[in-house]
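Model it.
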Amino acid sequence: MKRTLAFLLPVLTLTIGALPAMAGTAYSVQSDGNQKLYRIDLETGVATPIGSKTGFDGIEGLSFSPGCKVLYGVDDVKDRLVTCDLESGACKTVGSLNVDVTDTGLAFDHKGDLYMSTDAPKNPIRFFKVDPATGNAAWIGNQGMEVTGLAANHTAVYGLGGDGKDNLVTIDLITGAATPIGPLGTVTLQDGGLDFDHDGTLYGINDLGPGSGKASQIFKINRLTGKATVVTTTKDPSGKPINGFEGLAIDDGICSVPGFGSALALDAPALDPLGMAVLALALAAAAMVMLRR
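Modeled.
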């Protein structure tokens, strides 16, 4: 019995440790507002400004590098790749993109390569690979539609479809073409960001614009159907609704998952949150039975 229990308890501990954590922390710049970097609670929507202004006029398309070490963004006013400090909120230039873009999505894929999508109104359907060391953007191909917001997991790069499409798409990294998965349904996009959390949940943010009088929406997306479910809306620490957020990067998200950013990463099958909970309970029950023997 002792040997059996000694086996079950470590397995149970590992299983419980693999259960999804509460909603985490994301970062976004109020690029349609005060140009400050904000820390956003994905569960409550509370957005807390960090330091003073970023020093740029329009940073969006945020993405953490693999390992969640560096927060990158795009200044679409002067077409530059930047990095932002999570303590001071200040950003600095990496280098020029050498292309003219507006309303971008940005994401590192599971190999550690950085990609950028584009939305209206300047040359809206181009897809690029970006050098994170120099900022130079190399054209891959046409998306075929506007794409605002990019995110990647171990198997694919996803985007939010613009052009009034209001859908979830996947991007072909060889051709740049966007393939629709399905409509968001409950979310009508103005502009937005996209990222995965540590447990593989796909989150989006929708900037309804300063003229709308409405707070930005935070939503989850079913990556198999494209259906979006609004979780909360953004507000300042006093509870006042705020908007203007066009990018999303989740700290300790998919960027922190072992193997992300490695060309050798494998897409291992995994249970969904409910399955993990059931497995944990089953192992706990088995342990209790063995204790009673």
